[in-house]
Specification:
Elements (H helix, E strand, L loop, with lengths): L3 E2 L9 E9 L5 E3 L1 E2 L13 E4 L5 E9 L6 E5 L11 E6 L1 H20 L4 E5 L4 E6 L7 H13 L4 E7 H6 L17 E7 L6 E4 L14 E8 L5 E7 L7
Helix pairs in contact: 1-2
Subcellular location: Cytoplasm
Protein name: Alanine--tRNA ligase
Pfam family, one: tRNA-synt_2c
Length: 245
């Protein structure tokens, strides 16, 4: 039975109730619904706890997809107890960690606005993220930082729109990434839209994001690395240069 992935419609949902539908031999837990984001598209899956009726906790080390995108597996830490199929649990996402990842992922979208080149790779992290671009031009990291912070300070709304898999297939040019495909196969794909009426950007993405650019906070480009003749890697960090938060 496909899981009801509640985070797809509410990035700020950090707790919910769920019923255990399967427990794998390796301890992985499937639930009827979840607010835990599963690793995908360069963004790490959520960590946190599953609370049992007696108040005891099952600590989770990661959340990942199963054989298909409609299967989400919650992986406990070694030695954690196993729940029973049919047991009702209360899910608690590690919210400070998730929120940093939401801010970082939104910052990566803003970087793709400032640097309008095809994306060849990306990874979202709690302290540092990277975005790789297909480009040969030399660009100043301080100028990029200034443009990023201008977008942050303008406090543009960040919203979701939904299109069908067929609509995305008919409009492949809206995908900026050259080698990471947006999450298809569930019947609908989310567009992350920045600005009123998507005036700043619109990009298919299944990750989690903040609701307005000001929430990203202080960020900067720490380094731009040459990774091949036509590839540049941008490293984004929180805080100001020399003062990472």
């Amino acid at each position: 039975m496909p899981v009801n992935a509640l985070y797809r419609d509410d990035f700020y949902l950090s707790t919910c109730e769920a019923v255990v539908t399967a427990v794998h031999e390796d301890g992985g837990i499937e639930l009827d619904q979840t607010c835990f984001y599963a690793t995908s598209g360069g963004q790490p899956g959520d960590t946190g706890e599953l609370e049992r009726a007696d108040g005891s906790k099952i600590a989770l080390g990661q959340t990942k997809h199963g054989p298909s995108k409609d299967v989400i597996i919650h992986v406990p830490l070694d030695g954690a107890p196993r729940p029973a199929v049919g047991e009702t649990l209360v899910l608690h996402v590690d919210w400070p960690r998730r929120y940093r990842l939401m801010r970082m992922h939104t910052a990566c979208h803003l970087l793709s606005v400032v640097c309008s080149y095809p994306i060849t790779g990306a990874a979202v992290g709690e302290e540092e993220s990277r975005v790789d671009f297909d480009m040969i031009e030399t660009i100043d990291k301080d100028q990029v930082t200034a443009k990023l912070m201008e977008l942050v300070g303008q406090n543009h709304p960040v919203t979701l729109q939904w299109i069908t898999d067929e609509e995305l297939a008919a409009n492949p040019d809206i995908v900026k990434s050259k080698n990471v495909r947006p999450p298809m196969g569930l019947g609908r794909v989310s567009l992350v839209c920045i600005g009123e009426n998507s005036s700043i950007d619109s990009q298919p993405c299944g990750g989690t994001h903040v609701s307005e650019t000001q929430e990203v906070g202080q960020i900067h480009i720490a380094k731009i690395e040459k990774k091949g003749k036509e590839n540049r890697r941008f490293r984004i960090r929180f805080g100001t240069p020399g003062d990472e938060a």
